[in-house]
Amino acid sequence: MLHRPGKEIERVTIENKEELLFDDLVWSDEAQKEHDAFAELLVENGVEVVYFGELFAQSLKEEDLRRELLSRVLRMDGLDDALLGLLLSWASEATPQEVADLLIAGATKREVMSRFGGVKSLVLESMGDNDFVVKPTPNLYFQRDPAVFFRDGVVVSRMSTGARRKEAIYVGHLLSHHPYFSGITVLHSCDEMEGLDYSVEGGDVLVLSEGVLAVGVSQRTTPAAVDLLGKLISSRMGPVRILAVEIPRARSYMHLDTVFTMVDREVFMIYPGVQSVLKIWAMDYAGGRLESMEEMASLEEALRRSLGLEVLRFVETGGGDPLVAAREQWNDGTNTLAIAPGVVVTYRRNRASNQALREAGIKVFEIRGNELVRGRGGPRCMSMPMLRDGL
User: Fold this and answer.
1) Whole-angstrom Cα distance, residue 55 to residue 385?
2) Measured between alpha carbons, how far is 87 from 321 in angstroms, rounded to an integer?
3) pLDDT band with cut points at 50, 70 and 90 for residue 117
4) What are phi and psi of 41, to 5 degrees?
5) Which of 18, 163, 241, 357 is 20 to 30 A from 342, comparing alpha carbons?
6) 142-375 has the same fold as 54-135
7) What is the pLDDT of residue 190?
8) For residue 254, what pLDDT band results from cuts at 50, 70 and 90?
9) b/e map of 2-33 (b: 16 or more CB within 10 Å)?
10) How far apart are CA 205 and CA 63, in angstroms?
11) Domain ranges of the chain
């Protein structure tokens, strides 16, 4: 599943970019062209692509569902009863697509006043004309993070930051109310963690095999959430091993997949700048309980023992040059998307990393991402795999 970036990324300004988790402003027209080329490449290589925006609108056909979802997320935006009532009344008459557009792109005070006229609301009166009454979700094109598909189920994330918390709610709604996902076991970790200082995001979860996940303990995923994830999965989907990988808590390493990805059955890409400081624990879960926990001496040992590998190889971001590696890691050179064993999609700009992959025997498809990367995410970040062929 992909999300084609739209009006929501045009909501990011110099003034609000940090709050919305952007480091720079994205040229939306060019970003859409880059994203379209990415989707076309996937389709050409046998991947079935569906779009979040289209499915989300279809999931809002019933008035009761529109009102229920709106009420939940608008409360998160701090609206009072007057504004909430106004928007819920509008949602009763609006089309599903209009409601989806509002939830994704948000709305400013100026836009609300223009569309609905005045309303007696202290919240509205206290806002500037360009303040958001409904906050946008410009990070939504990074579809990896709101949920993780594993075996015959899916775990809905609980996002770390307020700027992204709605995304998991939207995806959870979609999974529960669209017939495309009927029959799938949906685990709502966002609900399980409500009121707790826990968070887990999909960029920290790597599906290494049918029975093994690597999960980052990072800026965005907390240790307690990793434990809860293991208990949730094992209680509903059967035993699972989690390799908990602690990485530096920094913006540049926000998720595990910014420093470590799997590119073939026994080949992994890693950013050498963090390899020596990683801490790894092998945690085995069954029946909703933690059965065993062991600290591993190295990532290599953890992968060998957990995946039954006699031989494995690491490909270094930047081809081994520390300065090049640091630059290309920042531009998501490690964030490869494996579409088959030994076949990956990467950003064209990361020349040294791509060459290192090719020298390791990996087939590399390059895409342009000069605008997409400004949101701090690569091809893996932009995709949510839902059904995988077995290895």
Assistant:
1) 15
2) 54
3) confident
4) -60, -45
5) 241
6) no
7) 60
8) confident
9) bbbbbebbbbbeeebbeebbbeeebebeebbe
10) 35
11) 54-135, 142-375
**Cα dihedral sign for 34, 104, 152, 378?**
positive
Phi-psi region of 220 (alpha: psi -120 to 50; beta: other; left: phi over 0): alpha
- Helix, strand, or coil (residue 83): helix
Q: Which fold has domain 54-135?
A: Pentein (1.10.3930)
CATH fold of 142-375:
L-arginine/glycine Amidinotransferase; Chain A (3.75.10)
b/e burial code for range 242-272 (CB count within 10 A of at least 16 → b): bbbbbbeeeebbbbbbbbbbbbbebbbbbbb
Q: Tell me the two tokens of residue 56.
A: 């989300």
Q: Residue 236 corresponds to which amino acid? A: R
pTM exceeds 0.85: yes
Identify whether the C-beta of residue 347 lies closer than 8 Å to the C-beta of residue 367.
yes
Q: Assess whether 190 carries a catalytic annotation.
A: no
Give the distance from CA 141 to its chain's centroid.
Answer: 8
- How many residues are there in the chain? 391
Tell me the per-residue pLDDT of 12-27, one tens digit each, with 9 for 90 and over.
Answer: 999 999 999 999 999 9
Per-residue pLDDT, 249: 84
* Annotated catalytic residue, options 60, 83, 381, 384: 381
The whole-angstrom separation of Cα 247 and Cα 259 is 9
Look up residue 173 and give its two tokens: 């709604």
Q: What is the CA 309 to chain-centroid distance, rounded? A: 29
Give the C-alpha separation, 127 to 113, whole Å. Answer: 12
